[in-house]
Amino acid sequence: MTFMPALLDKKDYRILAALDFDARMPLSELAKKTGLSKQAADYRIKSMLKHDVIEGFYPLINSPLLGYIYCRTFLQLKSLTPQQEQELRKYILTNKRLFWAFSLGGTYDYLFVYWVRSLSEFEDVNFELAEKFGHIIMNSTQNVITNVIHMSHKCLADKTEPVRFDLCEQRKTIDLDETDRKILSSLALDARQSLVEISKKCNVAPKVVAYRIKKLEAGKVIAGYRPIINYEKIGLTYFKVFLNISQCSHKEFSKLQSHLLSHPKVIYLVHGISMPADFDIELLAESSTDFFDFMKELKNIFPSLITDYQYLIYTKTLKVNYAPFY
Fold first, then answer.
1. How do residues 217-249 score in pLDDT, each as one tens digit?
2. Which of 129, 187, 193, 269 has the fewest other C-beta atoms within 10 Å?
3. Which pLDDT score is estimated for 1?
4. For residues 29 and 37, what is the distance between their CA atoms, to the nearest angstrom?
5. How far apart are CA 312 and CA 239, in angstroms?
6. Which alpha helices (DSSP H) does 80-231 contain, by range?
7. 156 and 250 assigned to the same domain
8. Structural domain count of the chain
């Protein structure tokens, strides 16, 4: 059963589940899917935005297809003064390479995710970070990510249709023109804004915007549109787990991954190079007890595969802007 705090009811959860991967869905279609009127669906979305259950909407842009590399930096910091914290937040909001940022609980305090064109550019990013904030950084870890498997939030509603998208490195890349870049940059700020609003910002006709968006979707440049959900508001805690895996066959590892892909709590799987462990997973749990029960069950199912694990808690989403253009 879906866990529901008092703030939301089943209808709200049906809306969240319907918008997951399809956040530009028209109100008429959303109403049919959720059994609500257009006015009721619109009111509930606005209410969830007002109460910060939803913090925005973003397009899932397939930036590796555009020639970008997905790189992460985990930071452990000293105690910050209010001024230092303000400077760090300014860096997060203004750095155009940085597209995803979170504050964390656990071994690390922040996770920064960057789009870069090359590994040397990622090296430059970290040099710049050290120059600006080296006096407050106690420890940092850098990773290059080869695949992030995005999954639908199956815990939001019963019988949620599973959706998967692999944001992975590409052998062949494509170039976009300036109009496509402007449209993607506009969508990255608010994926539910209307064609008319986008057309004004991009200085092209709404029909052109509609055609370009459909073409970007068909070409898998846009893999979907997702809400930014404040999980704390709906009684869930967002965990990142670093799994160390014993030597195993590809078949054994595939069994583990298949299990995780089908599990209702799991929302991301992450593969990469020079990571804190062999494999990351990200999941939503109702409590620390619920999380530890999940890990106990996982270790019981794969007793010879998982040697140990570490975990972090995502405490706040600080930035989401998938557009890689700078």
1. 999 999 999 999 999 999 999 999 999 998 778
2. 193
3. 41
4. 10
5. 6
6. 82-94, 119-133, 178-189, 195-202, 206-218
7. yes
8. 3
